[in-house]
Automatic annotation (TrEMBL):
This protein's GO CC annotations: membrane
GO molecular function, one term: symporter activity
CDD domains, per the entry: MFS_STP, TRX_family
Organism (species): Solanum lycopersicum
Name assigned to this protein: Major facilitator superfamily (MFS) profile domain-containing protein
The organism's taxonomic lineage, starting at the top: Eukaryota, Viridiplantae, Streptophyta, Embryophyta, Tracheophyta
Primary location recorded for the protein, binned into one broad class: membrane
Length: 715
């Protein structure tokens, strides 16, 4: 309830949620005086508001503003009297002078102690001078907060590590809702007294309210103020176009490698092998060539290496600078590819494209996570994957068009990669930097102005304070790469490694890299293979749109689980169909009907990936990283993704030749493993503010054992 009343024996308190606090020492005069004589009232302390000017008191000797409360430091031998024997809740903070996070939380504790002075007592205790308490209450990390009520520790009230003011208030409000502020008989007295105070405030208490267990304390929601602005949406959409670079290259490489003119110029062995196999031979092996695979995969090896440099750039100069660098380098690579006259220049261009993608993939997801409001963070971050899918579709359409050119069609396809590079480069010039990045680089005033602009309100103090404290905490950690290896960051490290690993082992890049090649292997003609790739690209786009509209409604886990289940079914179905047609020797042809069924199943598979592992494989790792390890964590995420993209791209055609239809069952097995991983080890992060997502690990059945702070909070 919003109104609180409590009465003590010698100093009685009636508290109302108003704006001013007064102390008054009075003789209580009313017809009900005799009813409360047993309470021996000699003083009554009222906390009242603007409407308390006419109190109806006689012989009032003093009236003064109360500035009571505040944070008090106590010693171990005072703990029993001050904490355990207190008639009101007591919040105890265990601190140490050498503890960096303790210093960071200090201002928030002081502020909350004053703000909640009518509800609780707040004290702090020196960890090093209180060995008995440390042992009794198992204080292993600093700072540690514990709420006590009626001489006992309130269940589930222990919290370790630094905490921002907004989260501290959420923590307290949640706990105080579970405990009563006063015994029932005292509350009943407060009810009768409240009836005398109708001149002061319109109370709506009843004896039933009191006898049901005391007055509940109302608390704020702790949500940040602000709204979704057109500015932040446009900013995120422009930033997300960085995904066009990645998507266009994924789609363009498969189409180009299926063009006869391109194969004859750079890979004549593959060209002649394909022509010879048309007269008979195994369909599984006709594109098996390591240099052809290197053309596709070299880009991702460069992206892997570049992501580490991008991490340093992103942290030192901001997210938008990394996007700008990535766009410029990608632009140079696109020009070299389009003008290449030999295989060496072609591979060099691919390497530069990879560097650009490494920068974009490292910075764009982080940028989107930091700019987006928590309620739309999932949808706006999925825009990155949406841009990837659009890039793939555009590339497939370009390939379909250029394949009809008599000469240099492949050059047009490759050089048009410069278009998304220009879009991101120009966009990065005009994009604002994120408040997180500005704070991290010491530009706090500019950061607050930007936060007000993207939230559409001037009242951003709570969120801004959270960002300041989070940044200060991150600066206490000198080595984010070493820090991410510590036990408390084990969940984030695991997600940063396994999610991108599993994303590539879904087998999706088999479809996206080599779609035209794969469809030609299944017996489709050149034009039909490219058109089929366009169809799967369209499915990819629409399914990703579905993810944008559902990820913040249903959450991450349901999309992962449903997508994984459908992908498994499709992998088994495609593998079975290919086995029935080609068998082990690779001889046979698809009928038109069976070919169309296979394409339809592949489309379902692409859709399942596009609403689950596609966008969420980028979203989830970027949103679970606290600021002190965010750049390192995102670099690991991108590096693992690029490494296994490189591996799959480099060996897929060889695996298809060696494993034949069993390759699809191979990927299906990994889909089973990754779906079980999501089911048991990934907590839901929907709607949780990015700076507070760490708390989901503390409540997880498995990861919570890594979360006790130990020495990891001792900075």
């Amino acid at each position: 309830m919003a109104t609180m009343a409590s009465v003590a024996t010698s100093t009685s308190r009636i508290s109302y949620p108003m704006t001013h606090s007064f102390n008054t020492t009075c003789n209580f005069a009313s017809p009900f005086r005799s009813s409360f004589s047993s309470l021996a009232w000699k003083k009554v302390r009222f906390s009242i508001g603007n409407r308390g000017r006419k109190l109806g008191f006689r012989n009032c000797s003093t009236l003064r503003i109360s500035c009571g409360g505040g944070l008090t430091e106590i010693k171990e031998d005072e703990f029993s009297d001050v904490v355990l024997k207190s008639d009101r809740p007591v919040l105890v903070e265990f601190v140490a002078t050498w503890c960096g996070p303790c210093r960071l939380i200090g201002p928030a504790m002081e502020s909350v102690a004053e703000e909640y002075k009518e509800k609780i007592t707040v004290v702090k205790i020196d960890h090093d001078a209180s060995p008995k308490l440390i042992e009794e209450y198992k204080v292993y990390g600093l700072p540690t907060l514990i709420l006590f009520k009626d001489g006992k520790e309130v269940p589930d009230s222990k919290r370790e590590g630094a905490i921002t003011k907004v989260k501290l208030k959420e923590y307290l409000d949640g706990l105080l809702k579970t405990v009563s502020i006063a015994p029932a008989w005292i509350c009943l007295s407060g009810y009768v007294t409240s009836r005398l105070m109708t001149q002061v405030h319109d109370t709506h208490l009843s004896p039933h309210d009191c006898l049901s267990g005391g007055f509940a304390v109302s608390g704020g929601s702790g949500d940040y103020e602000g709204k979704v602005t057109a500015f932040v949406i446009m900013t995120c959409l422009v930033a997300a176009t960085g995904g066009l670079l990645f998507g266009y290259d994924i789609g363009i490489s498969g189409g180009v490698t299926s063009m006869d003119e391109f194969l004859l110029k750079f890979f004549p062995n593959v060209y002649h092998k394909e022509k010879n196999l048309k007269e008979g031979g195994s369909q599984y092996c006709k594109f098996n060539d390591h240099m052809l695979q290197l053309f596709t995969s070299s880009l991702y090896l460069a992206a892997l290496v570049a992501s580490f440099a991008a991490s340093i750039t992103t942290k030192a100069f901001g997210r938008k600078i990394s996007m700008l660098i990535g766009g410029l380098i990608f632009l140079v690579g696109a020009v070299l590819n389009g003008a290449a006259m030999n295989l060496g220049v072609l591979i060099l261009g691919r390497l530069l494209l990879g560097v650009g993608i490494g920068y974009a993939n490292q910075s764009v997801p982080v940028y989107l996570s930091e700019m987006a409001p928590p309620k739309l963070r999932g949808a706006l971050n999925v825009c990155f994957q949406m841009a990837v899918t659009l890039g793939i579709l555009i590339a497939n359409l370009v390939n379909y068009g250029t394949s009809t050119m008599k000469k240099n069609g492949w050059r047009v396809s490759l050089v048009l990669a410069a278009v998304p590079a220009v879009v991101m480069t120009v966009g990065a010039v005009f994009l604002p930097d994120t408040p997180n990045s500005l704070i991290d680089r010491g530009q706090k005033e500019k950061a607050k102005t930007m936060l007000q602009k993207i939230r559409g309100t001037s009242n951003v103090d709570n969120e801004f304070e959270d960002l300041i404290i989070a940044s200060d905490m991150s600066k206490q950690v000198e080595n984010p790469w070493g820090n991410i290896m510590r036990p408390r960051y084990r969940p984030q490290l695991t997600i940063a490694v396994l999610v991108p690993f599993f994303q590539q082992l879904t087998g999706i890049n088999v479809i996206m890299f080599y779609a035209p090649v794969l469809f030609k292997t299944l017996g489709f003609g050149d034009g039909a293979a490219l058109m089929t790739a366009v169809i799967t690209g369209l499915v990819n786009v629409f399914a990703t749109l579905m993810s944008i509209f559902t990820v913040d409604r249903f959450g991450r886990r349901p999309l992962f689980l449903v997508g994984g289940t459908l992908m498994l079914i499709c992998q088994i179905a495609v593998g079975s169909i290919i086995a029935s047609v080609f068998g082990v020797d690779g001889l046979g042809t698809f009928s038109k009907g069976l070919g169309n069924i296979t394409v339809a199943i592949i489309c379902v598979y692409v859709a399942a990936f596009a609403w689950s592992w596609g966008p969420l494989g980028w979203l989830v790792p970027s949103e679970v990283m606290p600021m002190e390890i965010r750049s390192a964590g995102q670099s690991i995420n991108v590096s693992v993704n690029m490494f296994f993209t490189f591996i799959i791209g480099q060996i897929f055609l060889t695996m298809l030749c060696e494993m034949k239809f069993g390759l699809f069952f191979f990927f299906g097995g990994f889909v089973v493993i990754m779906t079980l991983f999501i089911l048991f080890f990934l907590p839901e992060t929907k709607g949780i503010p990015i700076e507070d997502v760490t708390r989901v690990w503390k409540s997880h059945w498995f990861w919570k054992k890594y979360m006790p702070a130990d020495d990891s909070t001792h900075v």
